[in-house]
Amino acid sequence: MQLTQTARALLEQYCAKQCEVFARPNVSEQFSISGPIETALKNKLMESVDFLKLLTVEDVDQLTGQVIDVGTNKLHTGRKKGGRHTTTSGVSGNTFTLVETDSCAVASWDLLSVWANSGKPGEFMKRLNENATLNFAQDMIRVGFNGIKTSETTDPDTNPNGEDVNKGWQQVVKEKSPDQIIDVDVYLDPDGGGDYKNLDAMASDLINTKIHAALRNDPSLIVLVGADLLSFEQARLYDAATTPTEKKAAQQLPNSIAGRRAMSPPFFPGMRMTVTTLKNLHIYTQRNTRHRKSKHSEDRKQHENSYLRNEGYAVGEHKGYASFNEAKVHFGANPTPAVAE
Fold it and tell me: Is 178 exposed, middle or buried (0-12, 13-18, 19+ CB in 10 A)?
């Protein structure tokens, strides 16, 4: 499809507006952003996906450094004979490493031509901007939950969830605090032939055996559960439901597991379950490394919005993060049950 005259004219207006906003003569070539514009971009990313607002998303100065937590697993109240009780906060020892991260959100000529017919003044520019910020923000979450390595050249066909873009939260904990991950084969069987009969039992095991004792009653603690696990459990509860109360319990499953608040976040692996606080999941971007480019590519028949920066992931308190390795979670009875002595 050819780019319509209306779409081409609106695209030229959009590029001119971008030059004005970023105070650049030409935004089709890479340029750096800092100061208020850098803050504005960060805010736009946060606004585009509600889940991102629930995490710890901060700018840092160094490529590598130590994660600082303010005594999340300590008691803050007490007394001291002859003096005042105090607590200390300090570096937890957990570290972060940032790597070059490059995002590109495209809008094809077909899509641009459709947007051009929206009929509302400014709608074309709004959709182009939202297309970029939404895709950038979603990928930050996608890599956070699925990243396992940092490759020099990434392959989105082989790694559609950014597995090779960066090391996400699960991988960080797996490498640095492996005891926080249940990394053996486990079986979910409502008939009792497995390790767990339901999601409540799975979550309770994580909380009681892996979460630090001082954090187990933290009201911010949440159960993150994959869509596949959730569907399996809901189907079981609906099949077994014979009263309105039981049906209501099945409907409430996505909101509560093991008496804790629960949710199924975007891009979360389907067979994974994690217990943590959302603020324990950190995303860091290095200040003054953000670069943008907004280019109309005639050869590829698309408009390209690019965002380059140094970025990485960290977990604030590893003892406040517990999870299953989703590759070793199975439905049904254990085919090789333990033999009682």
Answer: exposed
177's tokens: 């605090």
Please tell me the predicted confidence (pLDDT) of residue 90: 45
Q: Give pLDDT < 70 ranges for the chain.
A: 1, 68-76, 83, 85-93, 121, 246, 249-250, 252-254, 337-341
Residue 318 backbone dihedrals phi, psi, to 5 degrees: -65, -30
Q: In this structure, which amino acid lies at residue 153? A: T
| Separation of CA 142 from chain center | 5
Question: Is this prediction's pTM over 0.85?
Answer: yes
Are 317 and 69 spatial neighbours (Cβ–Cβ below 8 Å)? Answer: yes
CB-count burial class (<10 Å; 0-12, 13-18, 19+) for 176: middle
Which of these, 136, 143, 166, lies nearest to 41 by C-alpha position? 136
Which residue, 49, 24, 229, 60, is CA-closest to 144?
49
At how many degrees (to 10) do helices 5-22 and 123-146 cross? 70
Amino acid at residue number 140 = M
For tokens 């940092």, the residue is 150
Parallel/antiparallel/unpaired status of strands 273-276 and 222-225? antiparallel
Residue 83 DSSP class: B
281-286 and 256-257: which strand pairing?
A: unpaired
- Report d(CA 12, CA 161) in Å as an integer: 33
CA-based Rg of the chain, rounded to a whole angstrom? 24
Q: Exposed, middle or buried by CB within 10 Å (0-12, 13-18, 19+), for 279?
A: middle
| pLDDT tens track for 77-87 | 777 877 676 66
Q: What is the pLDDT of residue 91?
A: 42
Per-residue pLDDT tens for 259-280? 999 999 999 999 999 999 999 9
Give start and end residues of each alpha helix (H) in the chain. Answer: 5-22, 35-48, 50-53, 109-116, 123-146, 169-176, 199-209, 227-240, 244-252
- Determine the pLDDT at residue 253: 67
How big is the CA angle at 322 (ends 321 and 328), to the nearest 5 degrees?
Answer: 140
Q: Of 55, 52, 313, 322, give the one whose Cα is nearest residue 167.
A: 313
